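Hey,
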Amino acid sequence: MLTRSRVARVLKRSIATVRRLEGKELFPWKDASGVHRFDAREVRKVARLLRTDYVSAAQSAWLAGGRRAKLRSSQTGIAERGGSDGLLQDVARLRLENADLTKALEGLTELLEE
């Protein structure tokens, strides 16, 4: 049974992220001394999903939205300087979608191989 700090090390995330995952992806229980304990198999499953960026609860909505907006603005900025901005904006949008789908596919493939 793992503690929050051990789970954070396994997931390579902060304790705050572990807390965000509680009740959504991780379901701890309290031992006799009140320490939250996590099932190692459950933690390994979440670690695999996190490698594919497929766990939305691991990131705050603000951070995820901000990262997307920054990516979009940097890629569409190219379009604004280019000339045929409609086509370049479409290419930028498709690249983002492709990256998301590729990550999701990798995670699902990994889960199926187990």
